[in-house]
Each structure stands twice: as C-alpha cells, then as structure tokens.
Amino acid sequence: MTFEGYDAGDDRYVDPRTLILRNRLGLTDQADLTEFETVSVTQRSEEPFPEGRLSRSHYLATHRHLFQDVYVWAGKVRTVRTGKEGNWFCYPENILGELDRVFRWLKDYHYLRALTPEEFAAGGAYFLSELNAIHAFREGNGRTQNAFFALLAAQAGHPIDFDKLDPEAFLEAMVHSFTSDNRLLEAQILDLIT
After folding, report:
1. Strand order in 2-3's β-sheet?
2. Tell me: the pLDDT tens digits for 59-110?
3. What whole-number distance in Å separates Cα of residue 125 and Cα of residue 149?
4. Do the beta carbons of residue 193 and residue 164 sit within 8 Å?
5. Which domains, ranges and CATH numbers included, belong to the chain?
6. 74-106 b/e with 16+ CB inside 10 Å = b?
7. How far is CA 167 from the centre of its chain?
C-alpha cells in the first residue's frame, strides 16, 4: 500500500476505503487532513514542549505533544513496516531498541554540549540521520525530529533558526544521510545555527 510517497504493508493506520490515515476527526479527504494536521501541529509547536532529559521517552512525548489532536497513536512507535522510494526504515520490532541505542549514544556524548559549531553539526547530523533511519512514527517523523533537535541544540548552546531552513536542501541532505553520507546535513545544520 502506498500513502503520500510511503510504502507500507498491511497498514492498520490507513482507512482502506479512503487510503488516508485514520484520524481523530474522522476526516476522509487527504487535503482536509493535511490542512488540519498543519494547523494543529503549528499551534502545538507554539506551546511549551514537554520537559524531559533528551531521552527516548522525551522524544516520544514530543511527538505526542505535536500530534495529539490529530492521531490517537501520537507518541507511540509504529507497528507496521514502512519505507519511502524503495528504502525501508527500521522494522517496528527493532524501533525501541534502536531508539535506546541512539539516545545512549547521545548521553555518552554529553548531549553534544561544549562543542564547537562544527563539532556540534557533525554530531547533530549523525543523531538526526539515525532518528530518520529509525522513523519511529507512522507520520510526523520529520517535524518531531526537527522540534526535538531544536530542543537539543538550544540546550547544547547552539540554537537553531529554522526560519533559515531551505526545505528542499534539507530534505536532500536527509536523503543523503540515509546512506551514511552526513556531509550535506552537517552543512545544513551549520547554516541553521544562530
């Protein structure tokens, strides 16, 4: 089954009649769902984010915060296999273990604190690329990754200015990072550091 450029098999998140994600409002038109999701997530992103220790549970809480008005499964890891353009993300049975691995790495590297901007960009690119490859949620991964990364960057002393973000260039950098080439993503992060 394909949804919005994603491949997924036996996708319990999608209404088989409409082929759009099941949602709290029962919307059955993709344009309506996209509009509602955009407005809702934008409003939630202007509110204070959940406090936490930059951990797996904090990451899940960030997704829940952003998408709580849209999906009943907000903040929960996906249970279906999914990929994009023939590239499969982490299988659901491995998501929690992989998140634990990545957040253990982050803790071991002191949450990327006391680094030069270049060192922070390199560590941040690795962290973001790993979160993206895991793709913990059925929807909203990029927005959750960016929101969480902004929290991490601020606490590390390298605040991010997403107003300077070029969405196409950032997406291209994320695609390159999927094959372990983080150079473009590092450059994107350096450009966003305020």
Report:
1. 2-3, 6-8, 82-84, 87-88
2. 999 999 999 999 999 999 999 999 988 889 999 999 999 999 999 999 999 9
3. 10
4. no
5. 2-192 (1.10.3290.10)
6. bbebbeebbebeeeebbebeebeebbeebbeeb
7. 14
Q: Which pLDDT score, from 0 to 100, does residue 6 have?
A: 53
Share of the chain above pLDDT 90, in %: 90
The DSSP code for 178 is: T
Contacts by residues 174-182 (CB-CB < 8 Å, ≥ 24 positions apart): 174/128, 174/129, 174/132, 174/142, 177/125, 177/128, 177/129, 177/132, 178/87, 178/129, 178/132, 178/133, 180/129, 182/122, 182/125, 182/126, 182/129
